[in-house]
Specification:
The protein has 274 residues and is of the alpha/beta class. It has helices at 19-32, 50-57, 72-79, 101-111, 141-144, 147-152, 157-162, 189-193, 206-216, 236-239, 244-259, 270-273; strands spanning 9-15, 37-44, 62-66, 87-92, 95-97, 115-123, 133-134, 173-174, 177-178, 182-186, 220-231. The chain is built from 12 helices and 11 strands. 38% of the residues are buried.
């Protein structure tokens, strides 16, 4: 492959039993991305015909069909050796890229070498803004969102602060972490911070861990509201707060807090915490 043929951006979609979502995501990429690009779909052992459907509707996309469900971090790691772009845009299967989003995010990475990861504004299907950004959470947050207390107060202050409900989501700024539904970073980032942590479950915050590792490497996580991506957010854990997946997420929450405990007092995050 010559430099002229090399894609600028590799868009990676990891899918589990989300065939129709994947097809809509790929259609949005085909329609709205104007820079040279490639799409890589990792089917995480869905068994729902996703690889065949993608091959038929979008033969330009590359498909990795895993034989069994290994979780989101494993699926994302499976795509890393395949990317050919100089930037990677990790997308959840239930996203749709809006016009100009990829080009805007790529421009920020090109113009600001201190930024290691950029995240767009995420929109619900009705056009309303998703609370996709995060501050450091209270260590009691999981219990405030589960059990009897959650029934008395389903939206406690510690949760509102963590989810940045006081932010207008209209201003570009550094953030502690951004939802992993849509994150762009330079393709050489894994050489600096490593692969996705497969000790974390699909529901337990591998996206937060990835952002915190960017900060730990001396780079910044930046929110760019001019770039927009629609996200049909699937609240898997919240629907069953004491399910096996939810309990695994609880374990992952404290694992991540311990793993990155030194960052809580890092002065570089002062602006991201305001």
């Amino acid at each position: 492959m010559t430099e002229a043929e090399r894609p600028e951006v590799s868009l990676v979609i990891v899918s589990y039993r989300a065939r129709e979502h994947v097809l809509r995501c790929l259609e949005s990429i085909r329609e709205h991305v104007r820079v040279p690009h490639e799409a890589i779909v990792v089917d995480d052992g869905s068994g729902d015909g996703t690889p065949e459907a993608v091959a038929e509707a979008h033969p330009w996309a590359r498909v990795v069909a895993l034989s069994e469900n290994r979780g989101l971090p494993f699926g994302r790691n499976a795509a890393l050796p395949l990317v050919r772009g100089r930037a990677v845009f990790m997308l959840d299967s239930d996203t749709q890229v809006q016009p100009g989003a990829v080009e805007t995010l790529l421009g920020v990475l090109d113009e600001r070498p201190e930024v290691g990861l950029v995240a767009p504004k995420l929109l619900n299907p009705d056009g309303s803004v998703q609370h996709s950004l995060r501050r450091w959470p209270s260590l009691l947050l999981p219990f405030a969102r589960r059990g009897p207390y959650a029934k008395l107060n389903p939206n406690p202050r510690v949760h509102r602060e963590h989810m940045m409900h006081d932010f207008d989501f209209a201003t570009e700024r550094p953030v502690v972490a951004a939802m992993g539904a849509a994150q762009m970073w330079r393709a050489d980032l894994p050489k600096l911070i490593g692969r996705y942590d497969e000790a974390i479950s699909s529901y337990g915050g591998e996206d937060v861990d990835w952002c915190l590792r960017v900060w730990a490497a001396g780079l910044e996580v930046r929110y760019v509201p001019e770039a927009r991506v629609t996200h049909e957010w699937q609240h898997v854990v919240r629907r069953r707060p004491w399910s096996r997946h939810s309990l695994r997420a609880l374990r992952d929450f404290y694992y991540i807090q311990w793993k990155h405990r030194k960052l809580r007092r890092d002065p570089r995050l002062a602006e991201a915490l305001r």
